[in-house]
Design goal:
Elements (H helix, E strand, L loop, with lengths): L1 H35 L1 H4 L2 H13 L7 H15 L2 H28 L3 H14 L4 H14 L1 H17 L3 H14 L4 H36 L3 H14 L4 H17 L6
Helix pairs in contact: 5-6, 5-7, 6-7, 8-9, 8-10, 9-10, 10-11, 10-12, 11-12
């Protein structure tokens, strides 16, 4: 009986000891697992700022230019509209300036209602443009007899310089209506007459040179025809009759070429 009781006691001790060892091993395993993964148990939101700060800090081999380039790229990505704003503003300003120029031309021609409407369009594009108020003052000055007269005198001068007799006549007529006794009107009329006489002499010289060209073409003397046409071009290369004569000479030269045998 004593031997059997001893055996039962021994068996219980062995079972209790094995259970205690298992509990100890389980506790050790849990502790080891928790210490081996500290990042997984940490708050991911708290790590994000740390990683962002570390990404912004340059490494030991990164140059200052690379840091600047990275900062500029980050700034551009942060607000892409910053680069577009100056371009858009510049385009709107150009549009307003063009409208102001058109309003000035309309006012110079006496179309003051159209000029006011055009200035209104420019103000809608860029309301606080300094050129807008300046143009408005100048246009108001043109509304006065003195301003209108000065504008027409200037138009007449430009027309005479460009041999535009009809435009000069129209400007002088309007200037005479505003200030009939202005001495500069008589001076400009004399200049216009002299310009017309000069134009008539130039046209006559061109006509004579083209006549010689056509006579040379009739003789099939194309060298003389080229010489006469070149003389006309030296007088006024923009004259429409000279361009037509150049086409005539080219066709005559082509017709005089012998046809190739088949």
């Amino acid at each position: 009986m004593r031997y059997r009781e001893l055996s039962e006691t021994r068996k219980r001790q062995i079972r209790y000891g094995a259970l205690a060892v298992a509990v100890i091993l389980l506790a050790v395993g849990v502790i080891a697992f928790s210490h081996s993964n500290p990042r997984s148990t940490a708050n991911p939101d708290s790590n994000a700022p740390r990683r962002s700060a570390q990404a912004q800090q340059p490494g030991p081999g990164q140059s200052s230019s690379a840091q600047t380039s990275s900062a500029q790229t980050s700034s551009a990505l942060a607000d892409p509209d910053d680069d577009l704003t100056p371009t858009v503003s510049g385009l709107r300003r150009d549009e307003a300036v063009d409208l102001i120029g058109e309003a000035r031309r309309q006012a110079a021609a006496g179309n003051f209602n159209a000029a006011e409407a055009t200035l209104g369009k420019a103000k809608k594009v860029v309301p606080d443009l300094p050129e807008l108020e300046e143009a408005r003052r100048d246009i108001e000055q043109l509304r006065t007899p003195e301003g209108g007269h000065a504008s027409q005198i200037k138009r007449a001068q430009l027309a005479i310089e460009h041999d535009d007799a009809p435009a000069a006549e129209a400007a002088l007529a309007e200037a005479s209506r505003l200030k009939p006794d202005a001495p500069e009107i008589a001076t400009l009329r004399t200049a216009l007459q002299q310009s017309q006489e000069k134009t008539s002499r130039r046209e006559a010289r061109i006509a004579q040179a083209l006549t010689r060209m056509r006579e040379a073409v009739a003789r099939r003397d194309f060298a003389a025809a080229d010489s006469a046409l070149n003389e006309a071009e030296r007088i006024d290369i923009q004259n429409p009759s000279i361009r037509r004569a150049r086409g005539e000479l080219a066709r005559a030269r082509g017709a005089a070429q012998p046809s190739s045998p088949n």
